[in-house]
Design brief:
The chain contains twelve helices and no strands. The chain is an all-alpha fold and 287 residues long. The protein folds into two domains: 52 residues, no CATH class; 205 residues, MetI-like (MetI-like fold). The radius of gyration is 24 Å and the shape is globular. The two termini are 18 Å apart.
Length: 287
C-alpha cells in the first residue's frame, strides 16, 4: 500500500510540474547526445577540408547535406525522388520481414512453453539458421521469390529476426517465479489461464527486448539483401549504384536514410513497449 501511494504521489508531482520545466528537463537529457553529434560532424568537415581528402574517400558533411536537401526538394515538389522511393521500398521490406520473423518467433515460443519437446526439436534449426550469413541466403531467396520481389528480402529479414525473438520469448515464458506458479496451481488454474495471466506478462519485457534488437537487424538485413540484386528504387541498390558512379555524396544520403529508418523503427518499438506494459518496474523508476 505504501508503494502504491508513493508511485501515485510521484505521478501527481510530475503532472503538477509546468510543461516548460518538463521540456527543459527533456532537453537537458538529450543535450549530451546532440553535442557529441555536432562535434563529430564538425571534426569530419574540418578534417576533409584541412587534409584535402578526396570525395571518393570521404565526402564533406556539407556536400551530403546539400545533396539530401535537393532530394527533399524533389520529393516535396512532387518531381519524384529516387531516394525517397527507395526508402519506402526498403522500409516495407524491413517491416514485412520484422512482422513475419517476430510473429513466428513468438508463436514458436508459445508452443514450446506448452510442449518442451518442440523447443528441443526447433532449437538446432534456429541456431543453424542464425549461424548462416545473409550473403548465403540472398541468392537462394532471390531464386525462390524473384529478384525484384520484396518477398525475397522479407524472407531474409524474417530469418534474421526469428532466432533472437524466439530465444527471448522462450526465456520469458519459462523463467517464471516458482511461488507464483505454485499459487496458480493451488487455485486449479488451467494452462491457458496460467499462460494469459502469468507467463505472457512475465515474457513481455523479454519479448520487447528482442523486438528492439530485431528493429535494427531488420533494416540491416533488408539493405544487405538488396546489395545482391533488386529494383532500382531500394536503398541497397541505390547505394551500390551511386557508389559505382563515384557519386558518394548521394550514396551517403542513402546511408543516412537507412539510419533514419532504423532509429524511427526502434523508437516506435519503445513507444509500443511503454503503451503495452506501463506497469513494468523500469518505467515506474523513470517516473
Amino acid at each position: 500500500m505504501a508503494e502504491i501511494t508513493r508511485v501515485v504521489d510521484a505521478a501527481t508531482e510530475e503532472a503538477s510540474v509546468p510543461w516548460i520545466r518538463r521540456i527543459g528537463a527533456r532537453a537537458r537529457y538529450y543535450l549530451p547526445t546532440i553535442l557529441i553529434a555536432v562535434s563529430v560532424l564538425a571534426v569530419w568537415e574540418l578534417a576533409v577540408r584541412i587534409f584535402d581528402i578526396q570525395q571518393f574517400l570521404l565526402p564533406k558533411p556539407s556536400a551530403i547535406l546539400e545533396t539530401y536537401l535537393e532530394e527533399v526538394r524533389l520529393f516535396v515538389t512532387g518531381q519524384g525522388s529516387i531516394l525517397f522511393q527507395a526508402t519506402g521500398a526498403t522500409l516495407w521490406e524491413a517491416v514485412g520481414g520484422f512482422v513475419l520473423g517476430c510473429g513466428a518467433g513468438v508463436l514458436v515460443a508459445l508452443m514450446t512453453a506448452r510442449w518442451v519437446i518442440i523447443s528441443e526439436a526447433m532449437m538446432p534449426f534456429a541456431i543453424a539458421a542464425n549461424s548462416v550469413p545473409i550473403i548465403a541466403f540472398a541468392p537462394i531467396m532471390n531464386n525462390w521469390f524473384g529478384l525484384t520481389n520484396p518477398a525475397s528480402k522479407m524472407a531474409i529479414v524474417a530469418i534474421i529476426v526469428f532466432f533472437p525473438t524466439m530465444i527471448n520469448a522462450v526465456r520469458g515464458l519459462t523463467l517464471v517465479e516458482p511461488r507464483q506458479l505454485e499459487l496458480m496451481h493451488s487455485y486449479a488454474a488451467r494452462p491457458t489461464k496460467i499462460l494469459r495471466a502469468l507467463r505472457i506478462p512475465n515474457a513481455l519485457p523479454y519479448i520487447f527486448s528482442a523486438f528492439r534488437v530485431a528493429s535494427a537487424l531488420s533494416v540491416i538485413g533488408a539493405v544487405v539483401a538488396e546489395f545482391f540484386g533488386g529494383p532500382r528504387a531500394t536503398l541497397g541498390v541505390f547505394i551500390t549504384q551511386e557508389a559505382s558512379g563515384f557519386d558518394f555524396a548521394r550514396a551517403w544520403t542513402g546511408i543516412i536514410m537507412a539510419s533514419i529508418i532504423g532509429i524511427s523503427f526502434y523508437m516506435l518499438v519503445l513507444v509500443l513497449e511503454r503503451v503495452l506494459m506501463p506497469w513494468h518496474v523500469s518505467f515506474r523508476k523513470k517516473g
